[in-house]
């Protein structure tokens, strides 16, 4: 069950983050607030079902950081440094794309300046990130089956003749 929910939460993360990276209309402060609320509801559900050890919540980390990125101030070099420190699960390309797509929804917000984005790129240039922008939502985690040894020994097993397994020999 834990493995199923880890995979499911990964797919939620990938689809949502990919939509965020491709749609300018959803890159706003209010979307960041809504995402963060929805993610906290998912995390609370995991805790309620005692699935916090499944790794499902960790698969949402890039989405959490993207939501926080949408909510952070984006003006000063201190803001840029905070973004670089916070967004460790996002690639440089993803951070820059979100900042480029960021759209103010009211007159109190401002667009992200080109100088600010260049500052971010300069601070993140030493990262060895994947050049891939989108997350592969078809990625499948390996399934692990726990080994449960049997208390029954092999020499105590009786094979019925109706199975036609005469070629098997007891050793």
TrEMBL record:
Leader sequence residues: none
Top-rank taxon: Eukaryota
Domain Dilute: 1-126
Database matches in InterPro entries: Dilute_dom (IPR002710), Vascular_dev_regulator (IPR052072)
Listed PROSITE patterns: DILUTE (PS51126)
Pfam families per the UniProt record, alphabetical: DIL
UniProt-recorded Gene Ontology molecular function terms: GTPase binding
Name assigned to this protein: MYO5B protein
Annotated organism of origin: Cisticola juncidis
């Amino acid at each position: 069950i834990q493995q199923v929910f880890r995979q499911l939460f990964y797919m939620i993360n990938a689809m949502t983050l990919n939509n965020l990276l491709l749609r300018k209309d959803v890159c706003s402060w209010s979307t960041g607030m809504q995402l963060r609320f929805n993610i906290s509801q998912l995390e609370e559900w995991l805790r309620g079902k005692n699935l916090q050890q499944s790794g499902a919540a960790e698969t949402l980390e890039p989405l959490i950081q993207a939501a926080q990125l949408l909510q952070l101030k984006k003006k000063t070099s201190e803001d840029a440094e905070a973004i670089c420190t916070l967004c460790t699960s996002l690639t440089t390309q993803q951070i820059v794309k979100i900042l480029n797509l960021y759209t103010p929804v009211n007159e109190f917000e401002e667009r992200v300046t080109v100088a600010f984005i260049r500052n971010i790129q300069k601070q993140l240039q030493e990262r060895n990130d994947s050049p891939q922008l989108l997350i592969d939502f078809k990625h499948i985690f390996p399934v692990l089956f726990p080994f449960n040894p049997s208390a029954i020994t092999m020499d105590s097993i009786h094979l019925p003749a109706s199975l036609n397994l005469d070629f098997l020999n007891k050793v």
